[in-house]
Specification:
The protein is 24% helix and 43% strand. By secondary structure, it is an alpha/beta fold.
């Protein structure tokens, strides 16, 4: 039936994530960041030649993409695309930070059944209420809804989210709170795209409404998790939980 098909489809998706090790990049090269004319592209010195590459993060990333910073590029596999490389990581004060906006969901897909061992199926892009949440973990006890957020903003080991106002992020928190009122489990999962950090907190200075909503979500029963990652130029994987300061 339809439910059985969805479960089978979700399990196939999860197994593909595990088998493909989605968070391993291919053909990675090191370059030097020069400039970012707009949020989609950057100019990078690669083997001494100025190269235009695609930036896999449309956020501001102003503290990361500074002239002279060491960056890592993955060569694309489509010969017809306009840019041959994707910018996926950057070094900041000796710390390697993955800045691929697609990476957090991919690593969580690999991690999902370790995060919730009761899960029997993993659904991505799950329609709930007025939003499409990142994941729904189906368990014998009911639904566990998960929204994943990637974190790249860091200062002296202290990490923050968001790096720019995110009304969409606030909306997702309200959806998770609504899910709890309906008897579901709900989690907002912050993937910190770097290793060896001290703690995580909402960035109230940049978007106080998000911090307020996060604290309200916690009080309403939404689980808040923040994990740092093991990061190399060629890979990223979830490592360990970090302290959350609300």
């Amino acid at each position: 039936d339809e439910i059985a098909f969805q479960k089978k489809d979700a399990m196939i998706y999860y197994k593909i994530c595990k088998e493909m090790r989605l968070m391993r990049y291919g053909q990675v090269k090191k370059g030097v960041f020069l400039s970012r004319p707009n949020r989609f592209i950057a100019h990078v010195a690669l083997d001494g030649v100025e190269t235009v590459c695609h930036v896999k993060n449309t956020g501001r990333c102003r503290e990361l993409l500074v002239p002279g910073a060491a960056v890592y590029l993955e060569k694309g596999t489509n010969p017809n695309r306009k840019t041959a490389y994707d910018l996926i990581a950057v070094e900041k004060n000796g710390k390697l930070i993955n800045m691929d906006a697609q990476a957090p969901n991919k690593v969580f897909a690999e991690w999902a059944m370790r995060f919730d061992p009761a899960a029997i199926a993993v659904h991505s892009e799950y329609r709930f209420g007025q939003s499409r949440l990142d994941f729904c973990l189906e368990t014998p006890q009911g639904l566990h809804l998960v929204e994943v957020k990637g974190v790249t903003l860091e200062e002296d080991g202290h990490t923050r989210f968001p790096d720019a106002p995110t009304e969409r992020g606030v909306k997702h928190l309200h959806e998770l709170m609504h899910a709890v009122t309906l008897g579901h489990r709900a989690t907002v999962f912050f993937v910190i795209q770097m290793a060896d950090v001290v703690d995580f907190a909402p960035n109230d200075a940049t978007h106080p409404a998000f911090g307020e909503a996060l604290r309200r979500a916690k009080a309403a029963g939404v689980n808040i998790a923040a994990y740092c990652c093991r990061v190399t130029p060629e890979s990223m994987e979830i490592d360990r939980p970090v302290e959350i300061r609300l």
